[in-house]
Structures are given as C-alpha cells and as structure tokens.
Request: fold
Amino acid sequence: MEEVEVKILEVDRPKCEKILLDLGAEKIFEGTIKTVAFDNGNKTLTTDKQFIRLRKENEKNVLGFKGRIKNKEAKVMEEIETEVGDFDKTVQILERVGFTIWTQNTKDRISYKLEGVRFDFDKYNEEYSYIPEFLEIEGENIEVIRKYAKILGFEDEELKPWGFGKLNNKYKS
Reply:
C-alpha cells in the first residue's frame, strides 16, 4: 500500500477539530502511541530510506515495513503492516534475527477520518517533547490533501513532506 501524507506545523488543534467535526469527520483514535523503529546491523535500510517499525497503539500492536518513494510535494511511503500479539516479544524476535533499534519515541495522537482522508494530531512526549503539536494529513493523493488543508485554513507552502528526521531537526536546539 502507498501512504501519501504531509505535516503541518504548530497547528491550532481545537480550531481544526471544530472544522473537521462540522464537516462530519469521525474521531477514530485517541491515545498514546509507542514506536520502535529498527534497522539491520549495517544500517542499509535507513540508508535506503526504509525501516521496520513496531507500534503500540493503546492495546493494538502493529509491525510494519516502510520505504520512501521519491516525491517533493508529499511524504510518500510504501507501507506494509500487520497486527502482532506481544509488543515486547516482537522486539525480542527482531533483535534476535539481527535488527537493532534505530529510534524510539512516544506521542499522544488524536485521529479523525473524513471521506477517506485521515487527520492525525500528534504531540511527542519525553525526549522529543520540545516538538510542538502538529497535524498530519494522509490521503490517496496530494490533490485531496491540499483540498482539505485549504478547508482547514492552510496554504500549500505550509504542507511539509517531512519525516521525523526533518521535523526533529527543525526544533532541536
């Protein structure tokens, strides 16, 4: 599956939520997400803009592969995911077969869905808490993402095709 998304920095979540709810959006998630990303021992995955990711989304655990697809307007990733049982045992399995933890973090997320478009309000915790709350909009293509960003009051230049690295670098002191 292909994932197409952008980030919008330093958003006014209550204002955006009101617009989304007025449009008929459905809240589909609220909780804390713990993410552990893995690379192989010689770092060839991250060098090639790929990684294995394990997420704990409240009580649900999801293992996935993500690989970056070149695009200047949006962050486009190949994404393959499956639900797994035990989070800690999955970490142990991945480490035993040679994967190493590349990065890990936790964040609070509130998600809405409207006409196939997903809106995730994210706020990192702990060591990345200096990153202000932001919005990710994910849709089938950049045109539909732009449409909803405009409805929420954002201009095209505010849509960032960034992954975590660029987001972190913007705010890291």
DSSP finds five helices and eight strands in the chain. The first strand starts at residue 2 and ends at 9. The helical segments are 13-23, 44-47, 87-96, 142-151, 164-171. The chain has a mean pLDDT of 93.
